[in-house]
Amino acid sequence: xxxxxxxxxxxxxxxxxxxxxxxxxxxxxxxxxxxxxxxxxxxxxxxxxxxxxxxxxxxxxxxxxxxxxxxxxxxxxxxxxxxxxxxxxxxxxxxxxxxxxxxxxxxxxxxxxxxxxxxxxxxxxxxxxxxxxxxxxxxxxxxxxxxxxxxxxxxxxxxxxxxxxxxxxxxxxxxxxxxxxxxxxxxxxxxxxxxxxxxxxxxxxxxxxxxxxxxxxxxxxxxxxxxxxxxxxxxxxxxxxxxxxxxxxxxxxxxxxxxxxxxxxxxxxxxxxxxxxxxxxxxxxxxxxxxxxxxxxxxxxxxxxxxxxxxxxxxxxxxxxxxxxxxxxxxxxxxxxxxxxxxxxxxxxxxxxxxxxxxxxxxxxxxxxxxxxxxxxxxxxxxxxxxxxxxxxxxxxxxxxxxxxxxxxxxxxxxxxxxxxxxxxxxxxxxx
Length: 432
Known about the structure:
By secondary structure, the chain is an alpha+beta fold. The protein has 3 domains: 87 residues, 2-Layer Sandwich (Phosphorylase Kinase, domain 1); 179 residues, Transferase(Phosphotransferase), domain 1 (Orthogonal Bundle), CATH 1.10.510; 145 residues, Jelly Rolls. The protein contains 14 helices and 19 strands. The radius of gyration is 24 Å and the shape is globular.
């Protein structure tokens, strides 16, 4: 297939080739209807026309389109469109300028700082949990399928090998031995049932590489690699990198358990443990300090109706932060994973420099972005000295069901009060 530069493909104007792989090429193009730049992946005809593997490649190509189009998450590459024109199979995706893959940081001489590596895996876990809850198992998680953007955000792509359990895509799914052997789970190489825990194991392998620059299951043949994946334990990460804590080691070991029963049940469970690492302020606090915190928060209106044990659960799922007047707390556009309860002080909420609200002691903020696991929709800064509890959704999801129920009930109550106050203000203005 000749280059498609300066041609049209459907409604898309192809501008230039920006990548080429074994199975396809990627082009930068312009969508005149949506007025945006897009990336178009075009399958190489020689693979689609291959007598033995053509149907397999075609299934993989369009499986990505059907599966990924239903996943709308800030850490997953968005797929907009797919079509066949004159035997050209193409996929239209979100264009991410300046991106590169995590493969670049799986080398000993180019490792990410520890905190950034943990943050990357945490973002992957949150995105995979979203996919799993929507019935999609990626099945080919590897560094080359995880993009790092200019702003250091994570984007998981290439859902061609994915299995969708809740979608009508059975005609495009490829069942059987598929994926990258180096990142397969024990059940995957044995061709057993695939679940979300397969992706968790693969993410654990990537975590090991990001931390050490070495693969946990190296071998000089496919048979040797499979033997190590199924039976061998990798060397301790702490022996290879001195700044890795025992907690990180334990998290990684659990993600790489041979048996699914011993592994993390969900990617959100993994994210919850990683959140304890990524926030250095979330270290065990003295009992006296926690008792003071309990006394300060038990009278807040947010915790009205909570039992003593439920308040303690929230304290243990949160970190304590102090902010000086004028300091930024949340930034519009940032990825959300947590929210705040004001213990003391006032904060100001602005969107595009427009004042939205002033929130006071007992209020919460940041909850909409955190619950949707999307981007922050507003800026929040301290108006007075502020003490606040920072609650991570991933950690909260691991508290007892009664605590979770009470927590979300309190959040909804505050949102209703806030909405009622806004409605009264609008009515008052319109009646003047």
